[in-house]
Design brief:
Radius of gyration: 18 Å
Structural class: mainly alpha
Order of helices and strands: HHHH
CATH topology: Helix Hairpins
Membrane topology: Multi-pass membrane protein
Largest sheet: none
Number of strands: 0
Helix content: over 70%
Binding site for substrate: 11, 32-36, 57, 71, 100
Catalytic activity: a 1,2-diacyl-sn-glycerol + ATP = a 1,2-diacyl-sn-glycero-3-phosphate + ADP + H(+)
Pfam family, one: DAGK_prokar
Transmembrane segments: 32-51, 58-81, 101-119
Length: 120
């Protein structure tokens, strides 16, 4: 349950601040996120240039943005695992590997959507 008095607009403003801190953190600390964000700056205009249909654009942009979202979740998982212990543990390795695999999978899905829309 939330804190008393933390409702309505004040809760939304606080939540926006936490979201901003999260975005700044992933941007500062994750080179992969910065690389994917740079690629985003190329792919979004490219999606608009290559397509005439709004649904196709939405699919291309949306599936690519899911890559960024997945990278953020992966970074969060890594931060929690690193916070728990500095010692190696097989389950920590599994958590990090699965997070990384999720990012690659998101990229493959985005690439498949782009390929299907552009080449069929």
């Amino acid at each position: 349950m939330g804190k008393a008095g933390n409702t309505g607009l004040s809760r939304i403003i606080r939540a926006a601040g936490f979201s901003r801190k999260g975005f700044v953190s992933v941007f500062k600390n994750e080179a992969a996120f910065r690389q994917e964000l740079a690629l985003t700056l190329l792919l979004i205009p490219l999606a608009f240039w290559l397509t005439q249909d709004a649904v196709e654009r939405a699919l291309m942009v949306g599936f690519w943005l899911l890559v960024l979202l997945t990278e953020m979740f992966n970074s969060a998982i890594e931060a929690v695992v690193d916070r728990i212990s500095d010692e190696y543990h097989p389950l920590a390795g599994v958590a990090k590997d699965v997070g990384s695999a999720a990012v690659v999978y998101a990229m493959l899905v985005a690439a498949a959507v782009w390929g299907i829309l552009l080449f069929t």
